[in-house]
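Inverse folding, one chain.
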């Protein structure tokens, strides 16, 4: 507390120091001008504390601090109130607070204050807990808990997880293989038709439009594999043809090329074929 030396001096001269929120300090000795009370550890004898309700600072105390610090009366009162609030807040934490030269204040659980003139450290009493069967832990139980845990259950869980992953992969590969077989079987039942068929010459990598338009059909389904531009369209078309896919390609603006498979049979399972084509091509297939 920065104002502690001034409070000591005021207490010794006026015999009484009233602090709001704390109480009243009394001093029986007189002020000795030859003693420097600002030094750390310097204290007055016969200081007592009275638990009382104090609502405001004494006017004499504010004037005294204003004269000693050279500050305006309002600023002196503000500084004192700020330091006192800090002390009360600290005491509310349950810890003792030592005011230099005055003593130590401790707040009890019931809200009252306890005062010691000297610097005092509050020590809580340790609870004596008797050693009974309720509190005593057998050494055999401690030794048992220190043993390493059995790792067999964890190994079993890891093995089961690996088996589950392997089974999932196997079923996926099997279903993919079946879908591929169904697609290849259904692919050769279709027929290349359309408004204008674009073919790729075996000796060229680019697309060349056929001069002969295909005959339009009123029956069947057209499964759109992809709509792309060059060179993606040409590369994908040649790739699928090398896999013996009955794929066709056409364009109406020479910019966007449509890769599709057409089925003449109207009694096919379109949903199954569409899903199979999506799995095999790696892209979502739709029916036009």
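Residues assigned per position:
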């Amino acid at each position: 507390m920065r104002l502690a030396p001034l409070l000591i001096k005021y207490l010794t001269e006026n015999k009484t120091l009233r602090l709001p929120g704390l109480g009243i300090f009394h001093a029986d000795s007189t002020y000795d001008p030859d003693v420097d009370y600002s030094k750390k550890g310097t204290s007055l004898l016969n200081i007592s504390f009275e638990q009382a309700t104090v609502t405001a600072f004494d006017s004499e105390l504010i004037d005294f601090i204003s004269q000693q610090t050279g500050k305006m009366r309002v600023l002196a009162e503000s500084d004192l109130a700020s330091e006192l609030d800090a002390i009360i807040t600290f005491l509310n934490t349950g810890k003792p607070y030592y005011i230099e030269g005055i003593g130590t204040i401790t707040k009890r659980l019931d809200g009252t204050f306890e005062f010691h003139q000297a610097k005092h450290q509050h020590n809580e009493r340790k609870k004596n807990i008797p050693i009974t069967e309720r509190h005593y832990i057998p050494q055999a139980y401690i030794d048992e808990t220190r043993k390493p845990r059995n790792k067999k259950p964890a190994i079993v869980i890891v093995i089961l997880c690996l088996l589950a992953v392997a089974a999932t992969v196997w079923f996926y590969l099997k279903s993919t293989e079946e879908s591929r077989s169904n697609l290849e079987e259904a692919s050769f039942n279709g027929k290349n038709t359309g408004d204008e068929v674009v073919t790729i010459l075996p000796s060229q990598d680019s697309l060349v439009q056929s001069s002969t338009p295909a005959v339009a059909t009123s029956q069947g389904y057209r499964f759109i594999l992809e709509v792309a531009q060059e060179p993606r369209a040409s590369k994908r078309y040649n790739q699928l043809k090398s896999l013996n896919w009955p794929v066709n390609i056409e364009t109406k603006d020479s910019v966007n090329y449509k890769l599709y498979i057409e089925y003449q049979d109207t009694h096919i399972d379109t949903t199954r074929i569409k899903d199979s084509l999506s799995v095999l091509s790696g892209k979502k297939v739709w029916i036009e």
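Residues 4-116 form one domain. Residues 116 and 201 are 108 Å apart (CA to CA).
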